[in-house]
Every structure is written in C-alpha cells, then in structure tokens.
Amino acid sequence: MGLLFPSLRGYRRQWLGRDALAGATVWAVLVPEALAYATIAGVSPVVGLYAAPAALVLYAVLGSSRHLVVGPMAATAALSAAIVGDVADGSDAHFTALTAALALTVGAAALLAGLLRLGFLADFISEPVLKGFVVGLALTIVVGQLPKLFGVQGGSGDFFEKVWGLVADLDGTSGFTVLVGAGGLVLILVLKRLAPAVPGSLVAVALGIAASAAFHLEDHGVEVVGAIETGLPSFGFPGVSFDDLGSLAAGSLGVLLVAFAEGLGAARTYAARDHYEIDADRELIGLGAAGLGAGLSSGMVVNGSLSKTAVNRSAGARTQLSGVLVAALTLVTLLFLTGLFEHLPEAVLAAVVIAAVVELVYIPSLLTLHRVFTHRLGRAYGVAARPDFLAAVAAVLGVLVFDTLPGLFIGIGASLLLLLYRSSRPVVSELGQLPRDGHFASLDRHADGRRIPGVVVLRVEGGIYFANAERVRSAVRQAAGRKGTTAVVIDAETVSFVDVGAVRMLDALVGELDTRAVRLLLARDVGQVRDVLGAAHAEDRLRHVYPTVRAAVEAAMTGT
Asked: How confident is the model at residue 370 (pLDDT cuts 50, 70, 90)?
C-alpha cells in the first residue's frame, strides 16, 4: 500500500466481517447525525450527507488511525454557522457556498500544516489536558443529546446552561419519547455487556425505525428525522470570490484547532486502547484531504468524530475499511434510501450517541492523577503530578463552561503553563553515600544513605536556565548555610543544559560562598553543560569538573 491506506497494512481476511458490521453500524448513526449537524451549520440537512463520502475515503487513504471516523460534527458545525454568518450576504445560496468554501479553507490549512510537519505542536498539549478535553467534550455531547431523549426543547449555551435548560423543560417531557429513547439506551447497554458481539446500536436503530412505522410514533409526539433530499452532490469549487476566501481564512484556523483536537483526541484514545501509534502529521494530512473532499462535494466542515469513532470501535472495527464502507453506504443512501431514515426517532439516535461516548467520561483516570499527587513516596511525585491533575481539570471545565474552542485554548494554555511550571521548579535532591557500594543516591529514596560530614551533595534534575536559576541558587545557599558545611557539590549528570544566565548565577555563587568559607564544586557534567561553561568563561573552579561525585567529595574534604 506504500504511504496510502496505512491502516490496511497486514490486513487479515477474518477482519472483514467485523469491519463490515462496524461500517453498517456507523452508517446508521452517521446519516441522521449528519442531517442534524448540517442544520446546526445553517444549511440544508442533505449538505451533511454530501460532506461524508469523499471525506471518509480520503481520510482512509491518508490518515493514521484505524478507527477514526470523519464527518460533520456539532462543535465545528456551530463554528461554521458563526463564521459564515459574518461573511454571508443573506442569501441561502451564498451561505451554502460559503459553508463549502470554509470546509476547503480548513482542509487546505490542515494539509499545509501536515506537509510542513507541524503535527509536533500537538505534543504541547499534554496527555492529562487531552484527556480532560475528551472528558469535557464527551460530557458536552451527552448533555446535548439528553433533550432528544426526553422529548423537550432543551437550552443552548455552555454545558451548565444546557443542563439548566433541560431541567427547566422537564415538565414538558414526552412519555412516549422517554420510553423509546430509554428503551433504546437500555437495549444498547445490555447488549454491550451481555452480548458484546451483537451490534447493539444497529439493533436499536432498526427496531426504532420499525416501531416508528408500525405504531405511528410521530402521532404520539415522538420526533423523527423527517424528509431527506435524494441525489448525489455537485462536484466542484463553490461559487465564492477570493475576498470571501480571505474573510474565511482567520476563522478557519480556529475551526482547524477544534477539528484537529477532537479528532486527535479520539484517535489517540482508541489507539492507546488497541496499542498502536498515531502520527500527528498524517492526521493533519488526512484531515486536510477530508476537508478538501467535503468542500469540493458541496459539503461542510468535517473532522474526526469522538462519538462515531466510539461507535465504530465498539462495533468491532479493525481498520479504515469500515470507513470506506460507510462512504459507500452513504452514497447508496443519497441515491435510494433517504426515505428509510424519515421514521427514525431522534430519541433512539440520542441513545446511540450517549451509549457510545459515556465510556469516555472516565473520571477515575482523572482521580488517578490526584492520587499520585498524594502518594506517600515523596515530594517529587507531588511536584510532577499536581499540575497534571489541575491542568486536566482546567481542560474539562474550560470545555464545559466556555465551550469547545475556548476550552481548547484553555487546555493549550494549561499545557504550556504546566511545562513552564515543571521546568521552573526542578527537583533538587540531596545525595548520600550508600554503605553497600559507596555510590551516591537520593536520601529521599534511600534511607540508608550517609551524609558526608562538612560536605552537602546536591543533584539538580533538569536544565538550569533563567527561569529556575534563582530556585537552584536558593537550594545551594540553604545547603551552604548548614552548620559545619565547608563545601557544596553539585552532581550535574542530570543537568541537561545551562544558559548564560545560569553560568553567571553559578559564578556569583562561587564568590558569595567564598566569603562564607564554603567551596562550590561541580561533578559529572554532560557535553552541552561543559561547552557552555567554557564558552561563557565561567570561573576556573566551575570549569574544573570532577569525573565522579566521590572524587569531588574527596577534593572537598582534603581541600585540593
């Protein structure tokens, strides 16, 4: 396959049945969801279906995830409506053309970012933040589906406003709708537990359509999907001007961030569960190609779907062949089967989505970060773990309170603050000599370690630079201030780098400690540290680095 269809490498014939079943299940969810998300975007419902086939196939050709399903999504659909609404001239035709054009600009930006290998930027969003983002997004999806489950209007706004709107509307609950939706949800969850090989989502959709047709549920107040236009989309560049494209450019970057974050979060979540790697650059390229395909097919913005990916994986998908099948079935739907979904109760659709994403609301994984912080093994764990927990919570609350795009920026900001926090607070450990072999190790971890009379040995675990130099200076000063101390030895083996500011700080420390009759010695520096000390013309004593901690301690004790 070369660089194409990476998920199909090493394909096994026995996977075909699972991929086919998963594709049919995702198709049953994608069609009505695509119709709904197109409405959110402010265009005809069929535009959501137009976007799916080309996007699914192109992602399967270029993307790195075996399970990710691309298509219209609620968050990017809402952003699309807001961005296009600011540019459109008020006509429906122009609005529809701009919607397709936005898909093109987002796709082009993603493709360019992937070709420039900018996927590494995703690594600045730490795993706890990404996990918090996924939890927040999953909760948002669930609360957005609950009004359909109860047959009420529900509210708009952030997560809490939607919850409040749902509570306020509960007095108008439709009993038949709750019965249908709750029945579908219970059926899916029971089948998932007792008969995981049975596609519960597909069974629920089929039974929902059958029940709706047989018992005329719409006459009893149960909302259904409704009529869908028939026929294939027109293919080509949308009828917009270059000025329109320029007006969409800035907004497309925000849409790209949301689309990439949600897709990458879903892809990495399921890749971790099935033990394979996700290539962020390929994800950008796959997302870009999918967006271009959707825009040229008169569609709308697409991205990796958390909910449909969950459905895909839970239905047993092994490769992107399931996505190709979804694309084929969507084309068949546009040509012949649009009437099939007219009677699908929206409550059943909501049940399918809720059952798919509820497993992603894995609060224990966040609590684990907090438990690591309170672990009794030492302060080093707390320093490393507490920011992880706080950053994850910040990402969750950012999505819940401020919605997806602001929540993502809050998560990114939390990632960067976490990075700065950790690098500005390197662990400075005191070392003691072990009686069994004479090596020096952290006293926090080795209770049998022995302090050397008059000599304090410190190890700085991380680079020393302008942001943490003062913290290192304080640790050395505190060690030098102990009664009877004549020398402080810094074990530099774990110091990955120093900058000029750190060298000047160490120079100043040498002079300061000299006035207190305390020597400062370095041991076991690595290449970069040695090079910077020499280039920055550090004090001679700093450039005379001892090969081992023991040698530095002996020199301190003998005064040589």
From this structure: low
List C-alpha distances in Å: 226 to 29, 37, 299, 345: 15, 14, 20, 9
pLDDT band at 180 (very low <50, low <70, confident <90, very high): very high
What pLDDT sits at residue 303?
Answer: 95
Q: Do 434 and 445 meet the contact criterion of CB atoms below 8 Å apart?
A: no
Cβ(318)–Cβ(18) below 8 Å: yes
CB atoms within 10 A of CB 540: 8
pLDDT digits (tens, 9 = 90+) for 490-528: 998 889 889 999 899 999 999 999 999 999 999 987 777
Asked if 217 contacts 345 with a C-beta cutoff of 8 angstroms, the reply is: yes
The SS3 of residue 331 is: helix
pLDDT score for 156: 77
d(CA 360, CA 355): 10
**Beta partners for residue 461, in sequence order:** 427
Distance CA 491, CA 522 (A): 6
In angstroms, the Cα distances linking 301 to 67, 106, 235 are 20, 7, 16
Asked if 106 contacts 263 with a C-beta cutoff of 8 angstroms, the reply is no
CA distances from 560 to 406, 521, 541, 557 (A): 60, 11, 11, 8
- The pairing of strands 427-433 and 69-71 is unpaired
- Indicate if the pLDDT at residue 439 is higher than 60: yes
pTM of the model: 0.76
The CB-side HSE value for 355 (13 A sphere, CA atoms) comes to 32
